[in-house]
Amino acid sequence: MSKITPSLWFDNNLEEAMDFYVSVFPDAKIHSVTRYGEAGPGKPGSVMTGDFEIAGQRFNAINGGPDFKFSEAISFIVDCEDQAEVDYYWDKLTANGGKEVQCGWLTDKFGLSWQIVPRALYGTVTGKDAEGAKRATEAMFKMKKLVVAELENAYRG
Fold this sequence. Notes:
Elements: E1 7-10, H1 14-24, E2 29-35, E3 47-54, E4 57-63, E5 75-80, H2 83-94, E6 99-100, E7 105-107, E8 113-118, H3 120-125, H4 130-141, H5 148-156
Parallel strand pairs: 1-4, 5-8
Antiparallel strand pairs: 2-3, 3-4, 6-7, 7-8
């Protein structure tokens, strides 16, 4: 386990969330689940906490109730090899209530924010050709899901 582990607060759907993330990310796994006992405060037998892993990153989470919500102030970046990988994660994470935002950002059905980023983005918006980088950045601002071909075309002019 790394020295720092993100801890996520879910209302009352942690088990559903863990199952969802394990279905989306091929290398994800649930390490442990603890359940509420008779002392509560949750319903006895319902999930209290969970420890899971996505792409080698451990997460701890709690079913803490409705007091706190996720915001875009925290997001997780998914580094994508190519457009096919962007499309896969975009489609999976926006399905069933997820929301497309802008510039590669989305919010999944649990309210957690993700950035789905193709590696090609960095060669375009921060490329050596300043005018090309400007065009690619302007193209990116018009996108929700990032499209590699459009970024590269804008960069080339």
